[in-house]
Amino acid sequence: MEATAKLRLLQVLVRTAVTRGRDALSHRLGLAAGAGDQYEEALNDAYVRRACATLGITRRELGEVIELEYRGAKRRVHGEWFDIDSYATGKLASDKPTCSRLMREAGLPVPDFAAVEAGDVGGAIAACARWPGKVVLKPAVGTGGGQGVTAGIVHDDRRAIRAALWKASAYSRSVMVERFIEGENYRFLVCMGELLSVVRRVPASVVGDGSATLRELIDRESERRLAKLKRLPALEHPMLNPIQVDASLLKENGHSMSSVVEKGARVQCLRVCNRTPGGETFDITSEVHPEFQDVAVRAAEAVGINLAGLDVICTGVDRPLAASGAAINEINTTPGLTAHYEVTNTEAQKDVLAVLLRRMFPALASASQSVASQAPPT
User: Using CB atoms within 10 A of its CB, is residue 266 exposed (0-12), middle (13-18) or buried (19+)?
Assistant: First the structure.
């Protein structure tokens, strides 16, 4: 079998395994396959509808695309993509190694990295050996939401590197190997030179009650979350997704799905902190040091993105850059805005869509306000 055919077969097999694991959770909770993704799309749409109604923007469905109109000006939205950025810019932003190179050329902090071909085990092992400690393997092009990412691998653990390579290779023809950065994960939202919101992203977890198994705790919390989501378009904050699980992380921490978790003990279920598999966010915009604000705006300018979601890993954003060990993990043109609305500290929520839509429609500019001074509509 040719190498290309083998890679395509591998991609099908790994994606099927991931889908089956996600759908197994959906089946236990009595949901249709892929329901979690559908709820996230519905939640995003609910916020767009509300913002349009508030600002007097008309909304029309054109198949899967939503057309917005204000005083004769028209713009379009598709899922999390707003046409404030061009198609070419979106393609560029999906190329993680190129974005990292552009940001590094601009003097911005990014992790050391290398790119290898999908399925190139020898190349991946050699790349990991360059950075003693821990590494990250992820698809180099075209993914989001933590798909295909494996973080915290020991640099010389060949078995783990091989498994992570196959996982990432299922989503891309090339794989990015990065030096692992210790710290917490923060999402910065930048729109045309203005920092709108910063949230701290926390991986999915559950808290034990001393009698339930980990599987029961996860199902119980997922059912509670889904009860809110099923009431859309009503918004009951925070709206969170069902929890997915990384079995290798559980095993590493001495747990299994049948473990009974001690009362008050918190068990982390995933390494990645994205909302899609059940992560939470906390708005900490008011705590951000001016140096981080400057870095976020410069990063968006370096890649040429008008609406940018910037992922930063560091020990804290309330201190100077050098004291935080900060590195820019990724930047993209389709930032999930729900991460900035569905914050667990609901009193700090920012109405980022109000600012974004005013930037998309210049006729609204005269009524524009800084997002920091706005309270989102209830």
Answer: exposed
